[in-house]
Amino acid sequence: MEVWVLLAVVVTTAIFVYYTNKIKENEIRETQKLLLQFIDHFEEQMAKLEKRIEQKNRQWEAEIAKLYASLEQMKNSPDQSKAEQRDEEKQDSLRNENPSDLLKINDRYASLLQLHHEGYSIEEIARRTGKGIGELQLIFQLLDVGEVDGRP
What we know:
Low-confidence stretches: none
Number of helices: 6
Distance between the termini: 109 Å
Oligomer: single chain
Largest sheet: none
């Protein structure tokens, strides 16, 4: 009887191993199908994305071309730019100011102007006078001193 029991155990084990392998093969096939579906979906999405990127690139290139055309038109235009017009208006207003008012302003900032003309940097002038760098830059710009520390 022991042989029959042993044979039954061996046959049962063989059947178990056979069906376990079949189940694993089915799981592998299902996983492969899912992966292929995912890859197909991914490729579709990538193709759509590439088309959108190409479309955006064409739009941006058209916008850039328009901007370059506008820039060229502004360069070739006989009219002056708004910044140049503002500079001229500023100069005109300074010319029309009462000279005594200008002298009062220049007297008020004479020490700053003196330090600037002596070649001190804006940081050094700020340190010596206790004024802020931004304040000094503004004062020099308003007084039209010229370049201050490499800035127009």
